[in-house]
Structure formats: structure tokens, C-alpha cells
Amino acid sequence: MSDSTQAALSNLMHEQRHFDPPEELARHANVSADVYDEADRDPVAFWGKQAERLTWAEPFTDVLDWSNPPFAKWYVGGKLNAAYNCVDRHVEAGNGDRVAFHWVGEPEGDTRDLTYAELKDEVCRAANALVELGVQTGDRVAIYMPMIPETVVAMLACARIGAPHTVVFGGFSSQALVDRIQDCDARVVITADGGYRRGAPASLKPAVDEAVERCPDVRSVLVVRRTGQDVAWTEGRDVWWHDAVGGQSTEHTPEAFDSEHPLYVMYTSGTTGKPKGILHTTGGYLVGTSYTHWAVFDLKPETDVFWTAADIGWVTGHSYIVYGPLANGTTSVMYEGTPDTPHKGRWWEIISQYKVNILYCAPTAIRTFMKWGKEIPEKSDLSSLRLLGSVGEPINPEAWIWYREVIGGGHCPVVDTWWQTETGQLMISPLPGVTSSKPGSAMKALPGISAVVVDDVGKPVSKGEGGYLTLTQPWPAMLRTIWGDDQRYRDTYWSRFEGVYFAGDGAKLDEEGDIWLLGRVDDVMNVSGHRLSTTEIESALVSHPKVAEAAVVGAKDEDTGQAVCAFVILRESAGDGGQDIVEELRAHVAKEIGKIARPRQIMVVPELPKTRSGKIMRRLLKDVAEEREVGDVTTLADSTVMDLISENLKDSGSDED
Ligand code: WT7
Is position 35 within any domain? Predict the structure, then answer.
């Protein structure tokens, strides 16, 4: 972090500006202040009690088996069906007419309300269709979809028959899809012809066709017709969703699976080039997501309209559009498109139309809205809002305040929620109605969670000090392993500090002991709340025939938090580069990984700064990318390299991209 950011943060922490929970909310909140003590006294018993939120086909005998760390088993011996818990039981309880999703397509007027009863019928039909396609319990199914109701139906149908899904974000490339399909050996892919994005149909099926050509074990591709665009068709392999699902029976008996039965695999970037398949299982994940959704968003399922404005292709969508909210019988909004289509007030119109009470989104969106100006949200009636959440990256205090004042009318508490794909559930966050909040701080670990900030050697830091964020006790929705790679699971998360979970984030305690997240401490960037690996993008760049070497850093960016900045050395055969090569390389990264990984800036340089042992000093490149004076160069093998780079950049003027 730069000195000036550090200073600004210290000032803020010093000011101790904080907001107490509004009295009205405190009186009616789902949880009360004594919940922290209760959980502290006996965290395992606390999580045992939260499991009563679910309907178990067979009760568990033990809450937690932690006899073989870091491999946890939660709700040992219990049996349940995730889809039954998310759908059927609400219908059985007489709430079949409650809306599960107010779905809003991007084209104006393209909307659909789906009640719990309708959702149940759809999920049963889809489950029957999957069985007919030969999908068996334990088989993996890849889902590559736009934000449409069928995506939720497909996930729940998989869960219902015990086939773990792996949802691949629709913005990822065909190559990324290949990697994921192959890593978890998926045999069936569910996709759509496309979806609507920025006012036009975007395609998905061609990327699947390209991917499946290289995945010979995929035997069926189920295709939802969303946009009506022409698609290539492989007879015998491709099946229309409406043909396969439409005619099925709405009866399907859910089988009860072991609490530890795999529910899904979600891939996320790590510090190496190969994404990690984060495995989540059934019982603990559902307890963790449903409890935190209910407690942190103070959810009243009978009356609230809840909106997580994220894509289902990320963990935020899995936990807080699908599993948590549905397990709680929530009415949610689900929106397909971008915030500026057809105009920049789209979100606020949706909120006023559906009287949304709780909004959950990423700081990058909030900063974008700030830039567009408060006149835009002011045109809509946002008075239904009562609670606001933030997720995905550190929220700068200015954005926090703007969110609270402009969107929340000054009366909605803001919960800044820290968690990860790996944690599955929210971990650090205020509890509205109980905990006071400070702009920019995620405050403290939720009840039943123990987060400790430690120094280099794993010793807890004192108030006012910074260090690394660790989680010292297992929690229900924790990842169980990395798919097919237990050793990498141990090495990545449980080895940096003996016996505790290392999150990869820096954090600081303020004078009151509240937690401030400071961003990643490893080679992982956070762009618009999405995790990207520097190494993965470097690999993509060097896979281009004209690139000899590449180094990637995340540079501070006003809109996206961080932005991808790449430094490349070209092969001699590539000539001197010029602007064409930069565009060519940006497109290449988009093709290899996806548009979100496309560098904001690519600088062609003659050398890269390396230590004597050959390690690239990204810190120095970050200084260049963030237009700062370059820091200490004494450990460079050749200390003149940075001068060479600066000279070269001045000459080429390539930083105006
Ligand atoms: C990383 C996890 C959690 C769902 C979305 C991202 C960063 C997440 C916060 C927050 C500061 C945050 C961390 C974390 N992060 N939430 N409230 N404040 N940083 O999931 O892709 O697994 O990324 O996002 O760096 O490690 P993810």
C-alpha cells in the first residue's frame, strides 16, 4: 500500500467515525447482542444449533469431526437434500405461492416471476431430464450460462440428484471452460445459445462447441434457448433444454445424501497458473450460508425483497443468490444485464419497481455509480431499502459513505462483508442491529468464527497493528479440499502458519480491535471484486508466439480497485511492437482467460527487474504502473534495469492505452 493511502487510512481509523445500529432495527433484529458470547462459549454447540434451520432426512450424530485437520467433517452422519431444503420444504410449509425470484432480463419488459411452487416443478423436471441423460450421483456437470432462471434450476437439479455442479462464469473463455471441464472431468455441459449484455445478444454456445471439441468425454450438451440466435448443432450430443426438460414429470423424489456429499466445485485463481477447484459439500455449506444470510442481512423472509447484484458464476451468486436465500425461503431479485443498459439508472428502477429492501453488491459498482453522479439514483424511489451490503474487495470510506447517504438515504446500515470462495459463507462483518459500523472496516468475525490477525511468525498482533488474516477454527461452509489435490489444499491454506487457515489477505486492527482488510498479500489481484492471478495472466501472455517474457501486476485503479498491468519483452521476430501488438496481446489474454483478465495496459519493455536468483520484482513494476517513484532497487541483479524501463516507456509513450 502506498504511504499516502496508509496515511489516509490511519486518519480515518483515528477519527473513529462510526455508526450505531438504528434503534428500530435493534429492536426487531433477528439476532441480539448476546449471540457473540453464546458462540464464544461453545462454537461447536453454536453451529450445532444453527443446523436446526435445515430439514434433515437423518439427524447428525456429531456437529464436527476435526480429528484429521485440515480435513473437516461437519454434521457427521446427517443426511439431507440441498434442493429439498431450498425448494420443496417451503412449498410443503404452504409458501408455494411466494415468489422465489423476480427475474429481470436485460431487454426492458423482459421479466419473469418464479414462485417456489413453480421452481419446484422446474427443478424436478430438470432433475428427471438429467437422470434420463445418464447423469448419476457423483457425476460432475458443468454449467456455462447467462443470468437466467434456468441457471438456478440447473444448479438445483444437479444438487437434487447429487451431481456436483461446476458453474463457469459466462464471461470466461472457451479455454477456461476446457480447463475446468477437464480438471473435474465433467461429462455433461448445460449452456444457452446466449444471453443479453449491453443491449445485444451475446453468444455462449460457440465457446462450448469449441471447448467440447477438446473434451471428448463430454457426451451431452443441454442448451437453453434464451436469445433465439442461430447455433451450430451436433446431433447426438446437443439437446435443447425445452425438449429434454419440458416434457418431464414434475414429480421427483429427492434422495437424502450424506452431509459431506460434494455439492459443487468452484474454480478460483491462486498464485500459480492453474485455477483451484474449491470443493464445497452439502450440510455445512447450507448451514453456513443460510445462517449468515439470515443474520447479517437481518432477513425477514415473509416480507423482504433481497437483491444480490452479482453473477451466479461467482461464489457470491452461489451462496447469496442461490443457496443461502433459497434455504431461507427468500424472495430475491435476479438481474441479467449490465447496470447501464439501457440507461445508467437501471438498478434504481429495478429497486423501486420491486421495492427491494436489501441490496448486496461490490464496491466497484458503488464507485461507478458515484462517478455517474447522485442525480441518477435520485430519480428513483429508493425508500424501500433498509439495509446495504458490500462484498468482494476493500471498500474505500468515501464509497461507503456515499452508499449509505445517497443510496441508503442516510438511514440504512451498511454491512461490509469479508469472505472468499474458499470460506463459502460470510466470515467478517458487522451484524446490523447489534454491531456498530465504521466506513471502511469489516469490523469483526461473525459469531462462531474466529479471525485472528497475526505477524510474520504467526503471533497475534496487538490493537493498532497490522499483519496477516488467519482463521483459527473450522467453520461449517469451509472448503473441504481442492478438487483432486489434497496436498495443494494443505500447502496453500494450512502451511503458512501451522494449523490455522491462511486467507492470503493483509489486515490491520484499529485501536478498538476492529478489523480493516488491506488486500491480498500474494500474487493475486482483485479487479472489480474478481480474483485474478498474476501468474495465470503471465502464462497467457507468454503463450503468444511474439512474447518472450511477461510480468503482470495489479495497479491501483479508481474504478475497478485494481487493474491488470502487464510488462512484456517481445521476441526479436516480433519487431519493435507498437500499438498493434498491444491490442493483439490484450485480445489474446481475453481469448485465453476471459475479458475480465484483459490488461488495462501493456508496456513493451527491453528488460524486467529481477533479483540475483531470477525472481521478478513486481513491487518495482507496481511503482511504475502506479506512476510512483521507483522504490529500493539494491537487490536487483542489474540496478540499471529500472532506468532502462523508464526511458523506454517515455520513448514509446505506450502508457496512454
Ligand atoms: C478475496 C476473495 C467473497 C466473494 C467475492 C470474492 C477480497 C472479499 C472483501 C471485503 C476486503 C474483500 C479478499 C479475499 N475480499 N471481500 N469485504 N473487504 N476484501 O471472492 O474471488 O474468492 O475473493 O476478495 O482479498 O481474499 P473471491
Answer: no
